[in-house]
């Protein structure tokens, strides 16, 4: 009887953990109904094969527009990941040669720190702080 209780307890715990990890999936995106710009915009600039901002701050839980200003002749983009492990992509901008600007719509990010880099030059890196 004691063993049965323990087994049921473990099963309940496993179910709870599964439910938890289920809810921490990808962050909700902006407003799919209207697709209207959120009004939040942040600029990231590339110059001399580096991002000029090591860190940019965005509002948490709100979709925003990332204006990418590529001042190089070289092609760059901005790819946002959950962390520096770069295994989970959250937003990927178009790769283009500058000088020029492109705007990418980024879905809402929960408060926290995120990693971005150029996919052509992975050494070009920065941090997005959502708060
Ligand atoms: Cu690049």
What is the compact description of this entry?
With 131 residues, the protein is an alpha+beta fold. It has one helix and eleven strands; from the N terminus they run H-E-E-E-E-E-E-E-E-E-E-E. The strands form three sheets. A five-stranded mixed sheet has the order 3-11-10-6-7, with no helix packed on it. The chain has a four-stranded mixed sheet with strand order 2-1-4-9, with no helix packed on it. Strands 5-8 form a two-stranded antiparallel sheet.
Overall mean pLDDT score? 83
N-to-C SSE string, H for helix and E for strand: HEEEEEEEEEEE
Judged by helices, strands and strand pairing, the structural class is alpha+beta
The number of helical runs is 1
Order of adjacent strands in the largest pleated sheet: 3-11-10-6-7
What small ligands are held by the chains?
copper (II) ion
Ends apart, CA distance between termini: 50 Å
Strand content: 35-45%
Largest sheet: 5 strands, mixed
Instruction: Give the strand tally.
Output: 11
Helix share, percent? 10-25%
| Low-pLDDT regions | 19-36
Radius of gyration: 19 Å
Overall geometric form: globular
């Amino acid at each position: 009887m004691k063993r049965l209780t323990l087994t049921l307890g473990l099963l309940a715990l496993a179910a709870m953990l599964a439910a938890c990890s289920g809810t921490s999936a990808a962050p909700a995106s902006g407003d799919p109904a209207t697709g209207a710009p959120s009004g939040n915009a942040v600029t990231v600039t590339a110059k001399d094969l580096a991002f000029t901002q090591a860190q940019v701050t965005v509002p948490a839980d709100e979709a925003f527009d990332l204006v990418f200003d590529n001042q190089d002749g070289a092609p760059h983009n901005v790819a946002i990941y959950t962390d520096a492990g770069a295994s989970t992509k959250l937003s990927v901008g178009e790769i283009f040669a500058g000088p020029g600007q492109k705007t990418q719509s980024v879905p809402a990010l929960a408060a926290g720190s995120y990693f971005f880099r150029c996919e052509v030059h992975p050494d070009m890196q920065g941090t997005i702080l959502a708060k």
